[in-house]
Structures are given as structure tokens and as C-alpha cells.
Amino acid sequence: MTQATVVKPVEETPQTSKLCIILSKGTLDMAYPAFMLANAAAAMGYEVHIFFTFWGMNVIDKRKIDNLKVSSVGNPALPMPNLLGALPGMTAMVTRMLKNKMAKQRVPTIRELIKTAKEAGVKLHACSTTMDVMGLKKEDFIPEVDDIVGAASFIQMSEGGQVIFI
Amino acid sequence: MTQATVVKPVEETPQTSKLCIILSKGTLDMAYPAFMLANAAAAMGYEVHIFFTFWGMNVIDKRKIDNLKVSSVGNPALPMPNLLGALPGMTAMVTRMLKNKMAKQRVPTIRELIKTAKEAGVKLHACSTTMDVMGLKKEDFIPEVDDIVGAASFIQMSEGGQVIFI
Amino acid sequence: MTQATVVKPVEETPQTSKLCIILSKGTLDMAYPAFMLANAAAAMGYEVHIFFTFWGMNVIDKRKIDNLKVSSVGNPALPMPNLLGALPGMTAMVTRMLKNKMAKQRVPTIRELIKTAKEAGVKLHACSTTMDVMGLKKEDFIPEVDDIVGAASFIQMSEGGQVIFI
């Protein structure tokens, strides 16, 4: 009676957690949550991907990344009437205010957050369809962008992970 | 010694992946990501649901679906001062520009994306609470809408799947 | 031949489902989906967390919670030209209209939804970084807020759950 019954143990799924962020907005106030979450997750050992699409392209466009703005119009969170918010210069003023407050609290800039993200292994993907529609080229991007992919590739890489749409 | 020890193999979880999208925005630039993601996932064998709520109702409202707009105000991604963006006609112009660019790149229209979605088995659900609040009736919707459900039903159908809020 | 081969059954993962909502917007039309989903999930036995960040802070700020607004500008879903939407008073009017419609349909107020949420065990977390940047203090919040946490803590508590970014 020497039959060795090999019972394959239930695997403990030691696989890494995965966070996949779709960034569809091109404003400073939405770029921040994307990278804050990405970097926090990466620091905890997550595999992290950010897929830039639509207005989110601004954040990886080297001609725009340093001039991301906060919207002053249509954001009722700001204590000013809409007409005032619509005056030229108001968006710039609100953006400057937020940037100053962040600098005072030593919150890193988006450039710095991207640097940290890359060091932690976060992958940055540009949406190929958006590039076609907006006439963007690979050379328009910051060098930190890893590759250019379509929605199908993104779905594939997000399989089994958490997905956040910003 | 003929005992056959039947060891049930650890199941390979052959269950389908599931993607559930909540579309709460009624603009062209947010309807696109919803259907691009839905259709890419459906093409890969995912079970896909889209739950239309709040402004997202526009996308299934047969009186509005062909006139979805891109916001020109409060979108600092666009290279124009807010006051200019607030001039009547600017939203229409920006929308026309985007539609033209998309047509040139042979990006399907929202109508076409919905057709593809349905053929691939994507389910479209209208939010019952929003219908009550906005005074919408079933007859106001495009025929592709599958049913009218509440938040509880949506939570139930999304169980175990990925959820994206747009 | 009495060997008892103990085959450990594949566990049925009886763990609770978990829903983690990040609320980054400070408008009435986005606070509603957050609490409607949170409360529906909690009623079905989910563990539910809401993490308030950026403009979402308005929703737990006791000086602002009763005056959350719907944006009339930059929301092409509303049937009015942008310039009209930019006139002072329009945001207030649109907000009043929506509130009236909701009251008629007996949709609970945000205050009421928060009360229900808390009774159902939903946890409310304030983002520490946003507090620093915006100069907010614990005393500025409604008492229903459970604690103040950073992005890392949120990632940790969302592990294995569904994450929704609003």
C-alpha cells in the first residue's frame, strides 16, 4: 500500500497586486490623484500601469506637461461666480494659487512624481487611437513614456487587476 | 489496491472576466472611452455591462445621442481662454473639429460603436433613479438599451468584476 | 486499505466583497453617485470605504456640505449656451432645479445618504495630503468622518476590492 497520493496544494496566489489607471483628463487637479495613487501602490509592491488617453495626453506631452492648469470655470468647488471664472487670466491665477500651496507643503511637482513613478517601476502607456485623432507623434512625448498601445492591449494588461478611470 | 483516489483538480477558474462601466457623463469625449473600452473587452471575451446614470443618460436618449458635445469651457486642455470658450458657438465648433478629426481617422461614431457593442454582447442598462429624477421614459431611449435597473442591481451584476466609473 | 486521503477542499472564499470609492469631485451631481453606490453595496453586505480627496473634501466640509452645487458651465448636457451658463446665478438656479426634482422623487439629501451610509457601516476617510494643501483641519469636517489617511493607507485598505474613482 505504497500509493503516494499527490494532492496538489491549493495555491496561495502569491501573485503581485496590480493597479491600472486610465488618465483621461489633462488638468493638474486630476494628474495629481493619478500619480499619488500610482506611486503609493508601486511603493507597496504593486505592478502599476498608467494609460494616457484623450485629454490625459497633455500630461505626457513635453510641450504641455509644465503648464497643466486647474479649471476655474465649471468647478463650483471654487468660491467665485462663473462669469468671474470665465475672465481670461482666472484659470492661470487659480493654477498659480494651487501650485504655491503645494510647493509650501512640499508636495512634489508632476515632473518629480513621474520620476519617482518610473524609479518604482510604474509603466506609462500612450493611447494609439488618441494619438491618431490628435495628430500626436512619439517625439511629442516625454521620454518616460514606455510604449504606445491600443485599448485592447490595455484591457489585456489590466486583467485580474484593479482599474481606475480618472 | 485498486482504490482510485479521485483528487478534484484545483479549478482553473474558467469563468469569464467581467467589466462593468458606469457612464455618468453626457459628453462626446467621455462617451468614447466608455465604448472603446467596452468593445475592446467584449472582443476579448469579457462579459461587459454599461450602466448609464446622471448625465450619461444623454448617450442613450434618442433625442440627444446624435448631438453629444465636447465641452470647450472649463477644459484647460483646449488652447483658448475661458471667456472665448464661453461664447455661444464655441462648444459647437470644438465638437465639430473633434468629429472631423475622428472621421478622418475612421474612428467609428458613437452610434456605430453601440451597434458593435450590442453585436459583441455588451449589455446596456439605464439607471432607474435618474429616470425618475429627470422624468425620462423608456420610449425616450434608443432600442439598444437592455433594461432599467437600480444601483443595487448594478452592484449585484458587477460582483467579482472590474468596475470603471466614467 | 483504510488509508484516508484527506483532500482539502478548495475554499469557497467566503470573504466579504469590498468596494472602495475615491471621491475627488465637490459637486452635487458627483456626490450622489458616490453615496448611491456606497449605500447599495453596503446594503448587500459589502465592506465599503469612501476616500475624500481634492474637491471631494467639500462633501465632508461642514461649512460646504449643505451648499454643494451642480455645474451649469462646461456641462454640455444642460440645454443652455455656455455664456448663459456663465451668468452669475445660473449655477444656483440649475442646482435648485435638480434639488427640487430630487425632493419630488423623494431622493434623500446628501446629509440623509451619509446618515444611512454610516448606519450601514460605510467608512469615511479624509485625504491627509489634501488637508495639508488646502489648510483644512479635523474640526472643519462633519463628525461622520472616521479618520484621516494618506494614499498608501487607502491602497492598503482597498487591496482585493473593487475601486471606483469619481
Report the total helices of chain A: 6
Which runs of chain A of at least 5 residues are low in confidence (pLDDT < 50)? none
CATH class label of the domain at 18-68 and 110-165 in chain A: Alpha Beta
Query: How many whole angstroms does the radius of gyration of chain A measure?
Result: 20 Å
So what's the overall shape of chain A?
A: globular
Cα end-to-end separation of chain A: 62 Å
Largest sheet of chain A: 5 strands, parallel
CATH architecture heading of the domain at 18-68 and 110-165 in chain A: 3-Layer(aba) Sandwich
InterPro entries (chains A, B, C): DsrE2-like, DsrEFH-like
Protein name (chains A, B, C): Peroxiredoxin family protein
Keywords (chains A, B, C): Membrane, Transmembrane, Transmembrane helix
Observed structural traits:
6 helices, alpha/beta, 14% strand, five-stranded parallel β-sheet, globular, homotrimer
Care to describe what's here?
The structure is a homotrimer of 166-residue chains. The first copy, chain A, is of the alpha/beta class. Chain A has a domain at 18-68 and 110-165: DsrEFH-like (Hypothetical Protein Ychn, Chain: A, 3-Layer(aba) Sandwich), CATH 3.40.1260.10. Helix content of chain A is 37%, strand content 14%. Chain A contains six helices and five strands. Chain A has helices spanning 28-43, 82-86, 90-104, 110-119, 128-134, 151-158, and strands spanning 18-23, 47-52, 123-127, 147-149, 162-165. Chain A has a five-stranded parallel beta sheet with strand order 4-3-2-1-5, with helices on both faces. In chain A, strand 1, helix 1 (28-43) and strand 2 (47-52) form a beta-alpha-beta unit. In chain A, helix 1 (28-43) packs parallel to helix 4 (110-119). The longest helix of chain A is centred in the N-terminal third of the chain and has 16 residues, at 28-43. Chain A is globular, with a radius of gyration of 20 Å. The termini of chain A are far apart. The mean pLDDT of chain A is 85. Chains A and B meet through helix 3, helix 5, helix 6 and strand 5 of A and helix 1, helix 2, helix 3 and strand 5 of B. Chains A, B, C: InterPro entries: DsrE2-like, DsrEFH-like. Chains A, B, C: This is Peroxiredoxin family protein.
